[in-house]
Amino acid sequence: MEMIQEHPDAAYLAADDVVDHGHPLVRETADALWATAGGDPYAYAKAAFEFVRDTVAHSADSGDPRVTWRASDVLRTRTGICHAKAHALAALLRARGLPTAFCYQLLADDDGSNAVLHGLIALRRPGAAGWARLDPRGNKPGVDAQFTLDRERLAFPVRPELGELDYPGLYAAPHPAVLTALRGSADRPELWRNLPTGL
């Protein structure tokens, strides 16, 4: 899939109230992962991806009712849905100067019903041209997302026959419809009702 860069390069390094990569917890986590990676950008990106994928529980898998959306809160509570986990990973990557975009898929149940927007990120390939999509959602039986920059290993390959699709946009900030749902939901059951069904 050809991805479309929506903004100038610098926008994919920006901090805001969602991707708060200046927050002490984000910086501390990034520093620890950077040291583990030996200061290598590729190794750091892989370590950050695996950290978010494996140590921040997807709240639907764990049964946690809390709704998180700010990167530092996701890292503090170690819980969040796909969008929240994407925010945390973007903050960690941007904290070390790695351009990171937000991407979206439209996914559905096996019969094509209950379409919902799924969030992931794209990383500007360290030392190479182009972007690579990564999905830190969290693995479970039937879901095996991996860190690869040469071929995608996402949590959910789309099924066009069911109306699923990959949105090609590379967004510098989380989509406003996603943030409205996350910020306006008191718990995960309410969030499920509020999540957008498309862009």
Q: What are the key terms here?
A:
single chain, 199 residues, alpha/beta, 4-stranded antiparallel beta sheet, two-stranded parallel ribbon
Model description:
- The protein has 199 residues and is α/β, with parallel strands linked by helices.
- It has 7 helices and 8 strands, in the order E-H-H-E-H-H-E-H-E-E-E-E-E-H-H.
- Helix 1 (24-36) packs across helix 2 (41-55), helix 2 runs antiparallel to helix 5 and helix 4 packs across helix 5 (82-95).
- The protein is globular.
Summarize the structure.
The protein has helices spanning 24-36, 41-55, 59-62, 71-77, 82-95, 176-183, 188-194; strands spanning 4-5, 57-58, 79-80, 100-107, 116-124, 131-134, 165-166, 169-170.
List the helices and strands and how they pair.
Elements: E1 4-5, H1 24-36, H2 41-55, E2 57-58, H3 59-62, H4 71-77, E3 79-80, H5 82-95, E4 100-107, E5 116-124, E6 131-134, E7 165-166, E8 169-170, H6 176-183, H7 188-194
Parallel strand pairs: 1-8, 2-3
Antiparallel strand pairs: 4-5, 4-7, 5-6
InterPro entries: Papain-like_cys_pep_sf, Transglutaminase-like
Protein name: Transglutaminase
Domain Transglutaminase-like: 39-136
